């Protein structure tokens, strides 16, 4: 499935037009987030997944640059600590779900436990299947508590990934991101693609994934910003007005 989806923007997409639309959307997101926070009844969880160098960090910076930082939280999920490994896999996730009125961003997420752990066979396939069920129940629980979940897969080509990883060895401002293990993980590309496809098919089918062509940052930012904007407009948060009495 993923192999049949382009990692480049559609030919109809115009770079300058998309960049202008993204600027307009990010300005409107500030007002929508303010209403969401003031209302205090709903929240948004944004899940960002993608292979190394797919551009998750830059996306967060550029799409949310105008939003009041008091209303947005970002949580990155790295390799589990020893303490986290001593608990069930969602234990480290629960403290970071959004409170009402907030936008919470997961840079990687609970899906890592059915992706990298599956690819490297750190747990058996029966455990992975049970985790699918737990993830579905977890996301339903959040939905029932007023949280809108938006899931994005940043779809980058392996060729583009290798070029971006190479930049981390050449461009001083990017060297801090260099990790020799990233290229080793890329050797498991096909296994990761299969793991992602199973996630898209099995996990919370009523909360669809947005596959974001990500070889061009300007289109990736536009598509993600527009999707978040559309969700917030649909949620239609309202200022509460003066308290009675």
Key attributes of the depicted protein:
single chain; 245 residues; alpha/beta; Rossmann fold; five-stranded parallel sheet; 9 helices
Brief digest:
The protein is α/β, with parallel strands linked by helices and 245 residues long.
Structure notes:
The protein is α/β, with parallel strands linked by helices and 245 residues long. The protein has one domain (15-235): 3-Layer(aba) Sandwich (Rossmann fold). The protein has helices spanning 15-39, 56-63, 82-85, 116-119, 125-144, 158-167, 180-186, 189-202, 217-235; strands at 43-50, 72-76, 103-107, 147-155, 209-213. A five-stranded parallel beta sheet has the order 2-3-1-4-5, sandwiched between helices.
Please specify the SSE layout and strand pairing.
Elements: H1 15-39, E1 43-50, H2 56-63, E2 72-76, H3 82-85, E3 103-107, H4 116-119, H5 125-144, E4 147-155, H6 158-167, H7 180-186, H8 189-202, E5 209-213, H9 217-235
Parallel strand pairs: 1-3, 1-4, 2-3, 4-5
Helix pairs in contact: 1-9
């Amino acid at each position: 499935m993923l192999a049949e989806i382009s990692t480049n923007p559609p030919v109809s997409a115009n770079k300058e037009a998309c960049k202008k639309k993204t600027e307009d959307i990010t300005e409107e997101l500030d007002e929508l987030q303010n209403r969401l926070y003031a209302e205090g009844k709903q929240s948004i969880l944004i899940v960002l997944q993608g292979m190394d160098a797919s551009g998750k960090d830059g996306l967060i910076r550029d799409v949310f640059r105008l939003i009041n930082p008091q209303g947005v939280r970002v949580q990155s999920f790295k390799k589990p600590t020893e303490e986290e490994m001593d608990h069930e896999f969602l234990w480290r996730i629960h403290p970071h779900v959004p409170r009402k009125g907030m936008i919470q961003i997961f840079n990687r997420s609970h899906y890592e436990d059915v992706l990298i752990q599956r690819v490297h066979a750190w747990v058996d396939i029966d455990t992975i299947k049970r985790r699918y069920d737990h993830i579905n129940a977890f996301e339903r629980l959040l939905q029932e508590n007023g949280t809108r979940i938006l899931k994005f897969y940043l779809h980058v080509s392996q060729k583009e990934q290798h070029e971006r990883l190479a930049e981390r060895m050449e461009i001083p401002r990017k060297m801090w991101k260099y990790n020799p293990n990233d290229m080793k993980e890329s050797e498991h590309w096909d296994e990761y693609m299969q793991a992602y496809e199973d996630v898209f098919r099995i996990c919370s089918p009523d909360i669809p994934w947005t596959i974001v062509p990500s070889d061009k940052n300007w289109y990736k930012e536009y598509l993600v910003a527009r999707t978040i904007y559309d969700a917030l407009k649909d949620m239609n948060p309202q200022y509460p007005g003066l308290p009675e009495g």
